[in-house]
Queue: 2 jobs
Job 1
Amino acid sequence: MRAARKSEDDLHLNRRSFLRVSTAAAGGLLVSLYLDFPGQAQEGGRPARIYPPDAFVHIKPDGKIVITVNRLEFGQGVQTSLPMILADEMDADWSQVIGELAPAADVYKDPVFGIQMVGGSGSIAHSFQQYRELGARTRALLVAAAADRWHVSPASCRTEASVVYGPDKKSARYAELADEAAHRPVPEKVSLKSPNEFRLIGKRVRRLDSAAKCNGSQRFGLDLDLPGMKVALIAHPPVFGARAKTVSDKEARAIEGVRDVFEISLTRGTGVAVVADRFWQAKQGRDRLQIDWDLSGVEQPDTSQLRSKYQELSRTQGNVAVARGDEKALDQIAAGNRISAEYEFPYLAHAPMEPLNATVRFDGDRAEAWVPSQFQTMDQMAIGEVLGLKPEQVTFHTEFAGGGFGRRAVIDAHVPREAAAIAKRFRGTPVKLIWSREDDVRGGYYRPMHAHRVEVGLGPDGMPAAWRHVIVGQSLVAGTPFAAMLIKNGVDATTVEGAADTSYDIPNFHVTAHNPTVNVPVLWWRSVGHTHNAFVMETLIDELATRARVDPIDYRRKLLKPEARKLRAALDLLAEKIAPGRGKLAKGHALGISCHESFDTAVACAADVSIENRRPRIHRVTVALHCGLAVNPLTVESQFQAGIGFGVTQLMARGAITFKDGRVEQRNFDGYTPPYIVDAPAIVEVYIVPSTEPPTGCGEPPVPVISPAVVNALARLTGKRYRSLPLATL
Amino acid sequence: MATYQLNVNGQSKRVDVDPSTPLLWVLREELKMTGTKYGCGISACGACTVHLDGIATRSCVVPVSLIGDRPIVTIEAMANDTIGRVVQEAWLDKDVVQCGYCQSGQIMSAVALLKATPKPTDTNIEESMGGNLCRCATYVRIREAIKSAAQQLK
């Protein structure tokens, strides 16, 4: 049990602003709209915002504590870990805590990014302090209410498991105090626990959403069922940007349950919407549409042509991302000590398990939307724009999502836009737009295709002395509001991340990039630029280690920059954990090593791999990582175990989206095939470097390390180097 | 439209739908049982797995007209199934789920596996679970949970 903090006596009450609290008949702290604070203090150039507890905590009369999660839950576990942080500081009874996803509202914006979103592995990193302070403020309000009631000093009170204890064996449950607490001014300053006082943070806590996800009761966006709801599908153009020239919809309209068929504008070209009572009716209707598409003036991408074009571009210098040391140093190194390598990476679809969807009801002067969204702010604005409403006139519910991996964070918000355009014609009727799996696989917004060309010159010690690297791939943000933030010197930072900012100390280091324009919509795909850049860096470094006849872990440790201390700690921990088994690999197996830092989390990886049926078989993966304080080590472990499996997507034989005559050649999971159980590692051991530093993200950092580790193992088995993905038959 | 009398989780349910309608959409949209998920529509991902006459079946490709009186069992009935309950508990104990969208199908396949093979080997698991896609790739914990459930059922 924890004694009351002395500093509570010094609580600085904010007299400028009292929370706007309304008390419900049932009582309890109410969720209400954010009340903006005037005259916010500046901290590090950014306003230090005080978040109102009543927008995040609702203590119900029965003792249940509903904690609002300012993020989408789509597997990463924030619906558990953010409430853990708040509940810990609040001393809430964890068994009574419920995590609820926030609707779109200003108060729920990411404190760093300034929009409501999930991305950049920032949920915990950006909201750790925020949720701790919210918990501490809520606790302070409850303690103050109890102290007032008992005419004692708050300092004489302590809290545990949703109860305030005072002198003379006085006690009061949080639920009893909630009303009084809600009417008190929110303290501006609060003291936070020291790490040794944590009851939840740092503990392996099971997910709050497991039971509902194991018994079928968890509702996802696609499961939404509203009275009178209609279901819509859209026939999208076969080439991005094409327009419907003639539409024959007689057969479609003849399907029972089909209510309307009409052309709609898309963000690229036009489409034909089919609206029906049920999905199957809409699908049958869509299947029977006869559409003649106008392809005039529409660029028709072709993978083999793009490949040649990219390869050619990679042989010329692009815009400079980093230029360190002497650009000519490479040319002075003897040919025998130089390596030149060309890499290719395909377009990749995210293909989250739950197909994309959005439900919108338009009521004339307002609208309501239900979207499994990673980008609530953008999606809400887009729906408003289509319907001629202000964002705040669109009540926006964040629905649980069946995965996303970036696919639900779309700058142009095309899916909610389409849903809104359809709903506009059905005033008062909710319309659920569903993208079928075929729509998803063929619908664009892919991880871009890339080509890399790297020339490395070795020093007499076998370490890289000069490195000249050209990266070719579409920009993710050119022409969008994100460009100002992310494009510098003509280079999209997401194209070069993980290469230009490498953790390796290479004296003469030059990375340039070309961002060509191609008629294929592209998007961030879990770990973004690190997907291909880590592959290039980690396979090449491994090749150099082999060439130098140095152990691959030792070689990396020797090459790391002094400031790469997180990565060094991860590599050290990995070396320690794999040491006992390293000499005892089964016959036909090899160990592949990689390490990479992304989103401020450092990861070192060892993959035990053999070849079966001419494909890699990943038997065991060992991962060591440094993510600062691991808020929920169980979640961190799960994210890494599964994130490693997700990363295997890149290695799959059918892990590529390709184009012929402008059309996507794949259709569904039969043509674009993510990893199944047999493709993913059977065992993933996860070790976390102990740390009390601020927590960093764990959603994306698992992904980049696995593909290079696996092909580095393959290289040991076959003596070949693998520089083209998807991985060809071995 | 045609009328069908279906046996779902031991209850008789009447539906009026087009004969080509897949069982998946009958469950989801007519019977409002949304625990069974749509993932691909071509039996390539297993998110729609139910037990049809005791066999793990992809409900997205079975037209309602072909079902007849064969019993249909869905995720919603697993809490009342001896093996189903043990599998669900193992899933909770091992904290398997992430996004959770595929897990109804994973659990239905796992229950079918354990009903036929009480002590599954890794190969048995890979064969029976081989068509159930988990895009989060929670496969390590799925394996652990199946083995743990098998232990419990001994």
Job 2
Amino acid sequence: MAHRPDAEADTEAIRARLIEGIARAVGVPPERIDVDRPFMELGVSSHDATALTGELGVWLGRAISPLVVWDFPTIDALARHLGGELDSPLDA
Amino acid sequence: MGPGDGLRRLAASVSLPAAVSGFGRQNACPDFVQLLRRRAADYAEKTLYTFVPGVGANVEVSYGAQDLRARAVGAALAERTRPGDRVVVLTPPGADFATAFFGALYAGCVAVPAWPPEAQRMASTVARLASMVEDSQPSAVLVAQGAEAQRSRIAEFVPALAGLPWIAVGEVADEQAAGWREPSLGGDALAAIQYTSGSTASPKGVMLTHGNLLANCDAVMRLFGEGPDTRGVIWLPPYHDMGLIGGVLSPVYVAGTCALMAPHSFLMRPHRWLRMMSEFGATTSGAPGFAFDLCVDRVRAEQLEDVDLSGWRVAFCGAERVRPATIDRFTRAFEPYGFDRRAFFPCYGLAESTLIVSGGPMDTPPRVRSYDPAALDAGQASEREGGARLVGCGLPDPEAVLEIVDPAARRALGRGQIGEVWVTSRSVAGGYWRRAEETAEVFGAQLPGRSERFLRTGDLGFLDAEGELVITGRLKELIKISGRGHYPQDFEATALTSHPGVRGEAAAFAVEGEDGERLVLVVRARSAEAEAVRVAVREAIARVHDVGAEVVVTGAALPSTLSGKLQRLQCRRLYVEGGFAAK
């Protein structure tokens, strides 16, 4: 899969969006969210994860399977995957 | 051919009020199998369910088709089971769930619905299944597809299921229906065991008879004003009371039609719910409060083009305390699309009473009144402007006997006095599966001088001047997150083993937040390990219970009695007052 030229910009925006969404879901200020911690360690339930991927999908204008949070289980990995930088979970 | 047949034929072609069309008492069926059979005879071609998948075309199932599939699966199951055997219904939400559930009933078996364990979270989602299997001792398992593959995958974690017959309902041929024989059932025969009550460590299966299911469907019909012209939309999980009664059984009872969607489809895209209401011209749909809030927070105008909600007559709201803000915000947001505040239908119920205990009346706006908080704390409901706003949960079903009782003195209280809600009706289950002690305690309560046996709901409330039930709190230590119940002991057990730094003490409780109840865990650990413990507990709670928790670490001993029993209410009070303020 070809690298898209503005992939990095997308990744940054997606990362910020994920931080904000998760901060809201777990009731913690955004600055205390660790982007390298697995979602479960942040206290994200599958209810939250499903809702978040749904929101992200609408924002990005494409269908995202809620299962991505299992294949790319940190904010950083998920943002990079959705931004086009990571093709497979093995790259994460 | 008698007068009853003519009336039934008339009812099939014309929409009549329930009392005239002969549903309920006059045309009573003794069990749900006979009910579905009769509906299939009278409404063979009418669409019973429309399953709306995340991707792909809708699947419509007529009454005749559902009966055929139930007979086929029932016949296949009856070859491998005996009447009264428990059968795990392990199908995802959708057409296969309904077929499996009815298939179990058609075989004269007892359905035990359970969330299929998720491949990505096998270890934690399988724990609950294992607990239910150990408790109910099933004789067979029904899945959607690939019986052998699922058996080898899941039985690895739940060995008790390995030697049982696993049947994939999607792979049972229609031709098998020819071999079906109607089971001898009647109202007292067990139809299902609901495991929504109780914890993983101590599961409590509510025993629902065919009589219970029919009685509560009847209550829903009367309170919600339902009939053959009822068009429902339900995305609630069918493994729990609201989704099972509301989405699967009640439509059959009233000969209506219902569109069904999986819970995660709603969670992913909440606007789908509202679009479905409009596209199906639905009259009836509901959910716990968080779902209405989710719509307000996430649905955007561009997703609601051409959406018309003016046909929505009953927007039932239950499973957790309804907040006035939820009603106000949802009404404000969707009034422009035709939603009418009078549709809001707060209701109260619990699995121990099959589902519904109170609700309505229809076509009236929900009653929200303001009460004096100090008086509420003292057990009195006294109206006062600017006080605590509480939403009424409707009128109790007239067929039920409901009392507000002082739980300590076991004395019935009067209007306006707060006590535990006790109820007795044909919807109240016989008890918990093979738990004689808890059954006697919860289902066998008596008042002096009266012979009835009451269900102690564990919920606190009062009856207002007009006889409407208002729920104020909870006596039992159940915690409700997004409409799902959990027990503090389960959270505490998880916390205690999550990190070696946890010093043997943990307390779980719920705190009322802006968005409803949220979970707090206070854990004792040395301050040097506080951060590591905090992260570990949060992760363990999310992994095992699939709930987000706020974790507070303290170096001090948690409040307990002289004999060492944890005092959760004290912990909660300390937390709320800032006694565990973070360093």
